[in-house]
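Need residues for this backbone.
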Protein backbone atom coordinates (compact mmCIF):
# COMPACT_ATOMS: atom_id res chain seq x y z
CA UNK A 1 0.00 0.00 0.00
CA UNK A 2 1.54 3.30 -1.03
CA UNK A 3 1.03 6.62 0.60
CA UNK A 4 -0.01 9.85 -0.99
CA UNK A 5 3.51 11.24 -1.01
CA UNK A 6 4.44 14.89 -1.06
CA UNK A 7 2.18 17.35 -2.86
CA UNK A 8 3.38 19.33 -5.80
CA UNK A 9 5.19 22.47 -4.58
CA UNK A 10 3.56 25.80 -5.34
CA UNK A 11 5.12 27.64 -8.28
CA UNK A 12 6.29 31.18 -8.00
CA UNK A 13 3.86 33.50 -9.85
CA UNK A 14 5.26 35.85 -12.51
CA UNK A 15 6.38 39.31 -11.53
CA UNK A 16 3.66 41.90 -11.12
CA UNK A 17 5.14 44.13 -13.83
CA UNK A 18 5.02 41.27 -16.33
CA UNK A 19 1.39 40.50 -15.50
CA UNK A 20 0.37 44.15 -15.84
CA UNK A 21 2.10 44.41 -19.24
CA UNK A 22 0.33 41.27 -20.53
CA UNK A 23 -3.06 42.53 -19.36
CA UNK A 24 -2.55 45.89 -21.03
CA UNK A 25 -1.60 44.23 -24.31
CA UNK A 26 -4.63 41.92 -24.39
CA UNK A 27 -7.08 44.66 -23.40
CA UNK A 28 -5.57 47.05 -25.97
CA UNK A 29 -5.87 44.38 -28.67
CA UNK A 30 -9.56 43.95 -27.87
CA UNK A 31 -10.34 47.67 -28.01
CA UNK A 32 -8.16 48.46 -31.01
CA UNK A 33 -9.91 45.72 -32.98
CA UNK A 34 -13.31 47.20 -31.97
CA UNK A 35 -14.18 44.00 -30.10
CA UNK A 36 -13.36 41.51 -32.82
CA UNK A 37 -10.44 40.16 -30.71
CA UNK A 38 -12.34 40.05 -27.44
CA UNK A 39 -12.03 36.27 -27.48
CA UNK A 40 -8.23 36.59 -27.14
CA UNK A 41 -8.58 37.77 -23.54
CA UNK A 42 -10.88 34.89 -22.67
CA UNK A 43 -8.53 32.43 -24.36
CA UNK A 44 -5.62 33.75 -22.32
CA UNK A 45 -7.67 33.38 -19.11
CA UNK A 46 -8.72 29.82 -19.95
CA UNK A 47 -5.11 28.79 -20.61
CA UNK A 48 -4.01 30.29 -17.29
CA UNK A 49 -6.75 28.98 -15.00
CA UNK A 50 -7.56 25.77 -16.94
CA UNK A 51 -11.10 25.81 -15.62
CA UNK A 52 -14.07 24.42 -17.52
CA UNK A 53 -16.04 27.60 -16.84
CA UNK A 54 -13.44 29.79 -18.53
CA UNK A 55 -13.32 27.47 -21.56
CA UNK A 56 -17.10 27.63 -21.81
CA UNK A 57 -17.02 31.43 -21.61
CA UNK A 58 -14.35 31.49 -24.31
CA UNK A 59 -16.66 29.52 -26.59
CA UNK A 60 -19.55 31.88 -25.75
CA UNK A 61 -17.44 34.96 -26.59
CA UNK A 62 -16.48 33.42 -29.94
CA UNK A 63 -20.14 32.72 -30.70
CA UNK A 64 -21.22 36.25 -29.80
CA UNK A 65 -18.43 37.76 -31.89
CA UNK A 66 -19.48 35.60 -34.85
CA UNK A 67 -23.11 36.72 -34.49
CA UNK A 68 -22.05 40.37 -34.25
CA UNK A 69 -19.88 40.09 -37.35
CA UNK A 70 -22.74 38.45 -39.24
CA UNK A 71 -25.19 41.18 -38.28
CA UNK A 72 -22.80 43.98 -39.13
CA UNK A 73 -21.82 42.31 -42.40
CA UNK A 74 -25.46 41.92 -43.46
CA UNK A 75 -25.99 45.69 -43.25
CA UNK A 76 -26.05 46.99 -46.85
CA UNK A 77 -25.23 50.59 -45.89
CA UNK A 78 -21.72 51.93 -45.44
CA UNK A 79 -22.37 53.68 -42.09
CA UNK A 80 -24.23 50.76 -40.39
CA UNK A 81 -27.59 52.50 -40.28
CA UNK A 82 -29.98 49.55 -40.29
CA UNK A 83 -31.38 47.78 -37.26
CA UNK A 84 -29.34 44.65 -37.85
CA UNK A 85 -26.14 46.66 -38.11
CA UNK A 86 -26.88 48.60 -34.94
CA UNK A 87 -27.76 45.44 -33.04
CA UNK A 88 -24.56 43.80 -34.23
CA UNK A 89 -22.40 46.75 -33.12
CA UNK A 90 -24.10 46.96 -29.72
CA UNK A 91 -23.68 43.23 -29.20
CA UNK A 92 -20.03 43.48 -30.22
CA UNK A 93 -19.23 46.31 -27.79
CA UNK A 94 -21.21 44.69 -24.96
CA UNK A 95 -19.29 41.46 -25.43
CA UNK A 96 -16.00 43.40 -25.42
CA UNK A 97 -16.86 45.22 -22.18
CA UNK A 98 -18.03 42.08 -20.37
CA UNK A 99 -15.04 40.03 -21.53
CA UNK A 100 -12.60 42.76 -20.45
CA UNK A 101 -14.05 43.14 -16.95
CA UNK A 102 -14.27 39.39 -16.38
CA UNK A 103 -10.76 38.80 -17.72
CA UNK A 104 -9.15 41.39 -15.43
CA UNK A 105 -11.03 40.37 -12.29
CA UNK A 106 -10.55 36.61 -12.79
CA UNK A 107 -6.84 36.84 -13.63
CA UNK A 108 -6.05 39.17 -10.72
CA UNK A 109 -7.81 36.80 -8.31
CA UNK A 110 -6.06 33.78 -9.80
CA UNK A 111 -2.56 35.17 -9.45
CA UNK A 112 -3.34 36.61 -6.02
CA UNK A 113 -4.34 33.14 -4.83
CA UNK A 114 -1.17 31.66 -6.33
CA UNK A 115 0.96 34.27 -4.56
CA UNK A 116 -0.64 33.41 -1.21
CA UNK A 117 -0.11 29.68 -1.78
CA UNK A 118 3.52 30.23 -2.70
CA UNK A 119 4.09 32.35 0.42
CA UNK A 120 2.45 29.68 2.60
CA UNK A 121 4.57 26.83 1.18
CA UNK A 122 7.83 28.75 1.00
CA UNK A 123 10.41 27.08 3.28
CA UNK A 124 11.49 29.09 6.30
CA UNK A 125 15.26 29.02 7.05
CA UNK A 126 16.03 27.11 10.24
CA UNK A 127 17.60 29.16 13.07
CA UNK A 128 21.19 28.55 14.11
CA UNK A 129 21.46 25.75 16.73
CA UNK A 130 22.09 26.93 20.26
CA UNK A 131 25.30 25.71 21.96
CA UNK A 132 24.85 22.59 24.07
CA UNK A 133 24.93 22.84 27.83
CA UNK A 134 28.47 22.78 29.15
CA UNK A 135 30.07 23.86 25.86
CA UNK A 136 31.17 27.45 25.37
CA UNK A 137 29.69 29.46 22.56
CA UNK A 138 31.71 31.02 19.76
CA UNK A 139 34.71 32.95 20.97
CA UNK A 140 34.29 36.73 20.80
CA UNK A 141 37.55 38.63 20.27
CA UNK A 142 38.26 41.38 22.82
CA UNK A 143 37.71 44.94 21.77
CA UNK A 144 40.91 46.70 20.75
CA UNK A 145 41.00 50.45 20.11
CA UNK A 146 42.04 51.42 16.58
CA UNK A 147 45.73 52.14 16.19
CA UNK A 148 46.73 55.73 15.48
CA UNK A 149 48.62 55.99 12.18
CA UNK A 150 52.21 57.18 12.53
CA UNK A 151 53.56 59.51 9.80
CA UNK A 152 56.38 58.15 7.73
CA UNK A 153 59.87 59.16 8.94
CA UNK A 154 58.97 59.33 12.61
CA UNK A 155 60.00 56.65 15.12
CA UNK A 156 57.29 54.36 16.31
CA UNK A 157 56.58 54.96 20.02
CA UNK A 158 57.03 51.93 22.27
CA UNK A 159 53.91 50.25 23.53
CA UNK A 160 52.65 51.84 26.69
CA UNK A 161 52.60 49.79 29.87
CA UNK A 162 49.25 49.04 31.45
CA UNK A 163 48.09 51.86 33.68
CA UNK A 164 48.23 50.98 37.38
CA UNK A 165 46.11 53.16 39.66
CA UNK A 166 48.18 54.97 42.36
CA UNK A 167 46.57 55.00 45.83
CA UNK A 168 45.79 58.51 47.02
CA UNK A 169 46.47 59.96 50.47
CA UNK A 170 44.25 58.83 53.36
CA UNK A 171 41.25 61.05 54.08
CA UNK A 172 41.80 63.81 56.65
CA UNK A 173 39.53 63.47 59.68
CA UNK A 174 38.56 66.89 61.04
CA UNK A 175 39.41 67.32 64.77
CA UNK A 176 36.58 67.34 67.24
CA UNK A 177 35.52 70.78 68.46
CA UNK A 178 36.29 71.44 72.10
CA UNK A 179 35.36 74.54 74.12
CA UNK A 180 38.24 76.99 74.30
CA UNK A 181 39.80 77.63 77.77
CA UNK A 182 39.18 81.36 77.42
CA UNK A 183 35.46 80.74 77.37
CA UNK A 184 35.67 78.78 80.66
CA UNK A 185 37.67 81.54 82.33
CA UNK A 186 35.14 84.15 81.21
CA UNK A 187 32.26 82.17 82.66
CA UNK A 188 34.18 81.68 85.90
CA UNK A 189 34.90 85.41 86.21
CA UNK A 190 31.24 86.25 85.62
CA UNK A 191 30.26 83.84 88.39
CA UNK A 192 32.77 85.47 90.77
CA UNK A 193 31.41 88.91 90.00
CA UNK A 194 27.88 87.69 90.63
CA UNK A 195 28.94 86.23 93.98
CA UNK A 196 30.60 89.51 95.05
CA UNK A 197 27.52 91.43 94.04
CA UNK A 198 25.31 89.19 96.12
CA UNK A 199 27.58 89.51 99.15
CA UNK A 200 27.53 93.29 98.92
CA UNK A 201 23.78 93.26 98.74
CA UNK A 202 23.62 91.08 101.84
CA UNK A 203 25.98 93.44 103.74
CA UNK A 204 23.88 96.49 102.90
CA UNK A 205 20.77 94.73 104.04
CA UNK A 206 22.29 93.93 107.45
CA UNK A 207 23.49 97.54 107.93
CA UNK A 208 20.12 98.95 107.08
CA UNK A 209 18.43 96.61 109.54
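Answer:
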Amino acid sequence: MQGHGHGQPAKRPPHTAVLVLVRVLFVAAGFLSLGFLAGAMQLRLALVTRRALDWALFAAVLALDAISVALVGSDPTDDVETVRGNVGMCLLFATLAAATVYYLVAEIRHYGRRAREFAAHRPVPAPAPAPAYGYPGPAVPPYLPPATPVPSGMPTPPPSAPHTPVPGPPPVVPPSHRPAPARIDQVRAELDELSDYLRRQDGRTEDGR
